[in-house]
Amino acid sequence: MLKLPNDGPATGRLLSQVLTGDGPAAIVRAIARAQPPLMARLAAGRLHGDPTEIVGVNDTGDRQKALDVGAHHHMIAALRRAGVRQVLSEEAEAVIDLNPDGAWDVAMDPIDGSGSIGIGAPLGMLFSILPAAPEGFLRTGESVVAAGYASFGHSMDFGWSLGDGTHIAGWDAEAQDFRLVRENVTLKPKASTIAYNASNERHWAPGLQRWVADLRAGRDGPLAKTYNMRWLAAAVGELHRILLNGGAFLYPADNRPGYGKGKLRLVYEAMPIAFLIEQAGGRASDGAQPIRYRKPLTLHDMTPLIFGAKDEVETILGYLAEPTEG
Questions:
Q1: What φ, ψ does residue 313 adopt, rounded to 5°?
Q2: Is 238 annotated as a binding residue?
Q3: In what residue span(s) does the Fructose-1-6-bisphosphatase class 1 C-terminal domain sit (predicted)?
């Protein structure tokens, strides 16, 4: 590894020293240990084959790439060894039974942002942990006891919460372990960076279109502030960036066919994001209520999602709630 003039030994406690104990902590450790092989395969690109090869279609109609399916099976094996009872994955239509006597269930998106596989854009994975229960995954986000994510970019990072704040670790190749780099992340209530897909603006509700107009007016407009725009096309990448630098993200419902109820998955995308963001002092909403109160009707339910800095999210929700004229 290149050494910079001010470099020294790696610092930060090892994840194996920070995350101790059984139950959800042990499952989070197992998920973290499973990430380096995924990052290594991403880094290899097309050297051994094409990770973007289309190999199927998942339950929500997205085309599955080879890496999607490979990551799914890789994580299923890791969760089986960790004693997990059941898994809900974006890449499987039905719940997967692993260990009948297991005390915990896991919902996961094995590769989030897979549309960007092979082009160097941020990718990652998302997961949440719930106590085993007869109703399985058809529970509100209030049932989530732990959640986390991995971010694969120019570094490999791992964030998690056991309900005691949100923490972030970075991969130390020399130690072959993650090291804690951010403990008890706290989001500032205000932010100057907003992430959304501007190409969809014309399909949004009138209130949101007014918000965009006021946003673009900058310091001279009603919001009296100049904002920066970001769009990584991967919710997990936006989550990681917002936890590190602040900001807000929105992927609202719109009037296009198939987008009226949003497009992100409630159980294994929105719920873990909401848990992590709220543990960091932020807010996560579907536009009408906090994500943690949403109860999925189906395993792969979709939802609008707005999350990030508390005041910025509340401002967006205020515009969204404006009555439609006429």
A1: -65, -40
A2: no
A3: 188-318
Per the annotation, does 286 bind a ligand? Answer: no
Residue 159 phi/psi, 5-degree rounding, is -115, 150
Q: Does domain 193-321 have CATH number 3.40.190.80?
A: yes
Task: Provide DSSP, 92-125.
Answer: -SSPEE--TT-SEEEEEEEEETGGGTTTT--EEE
DSSP three-state, residue 168:
strand
Q: Binding site annotation covers 91?
A: no
C-beta atoms surrounding 55 within 10 Å: 12
53 is in an annotated binding site: no
Give the three-class secondary structure for 56. strand
pLDDT-based confidence at residue 64 (cuts at 50, 70, 90) = confident
By the 8 A CB rule, do 179 and 12 touch? yes
Q: Any known ligand binding at 263?
A: yes
pLDDT in tens, 19-32: 999 999 999 999 99
Q: What is the secondary structure of 73-85 as a DSSP string?
A: HHHHHHHHHTT-S
Q: Is domain 15-184 classified as CATH 3.30.540.10?
A: yes
* Beta strands at 283-285 and 248-251: parallel, antiparallel or unpaired: unpaired
Domain limits, the chain = 15-184, 193-321
CA-wise closest residue to 238 among 62, 75, 113: 113
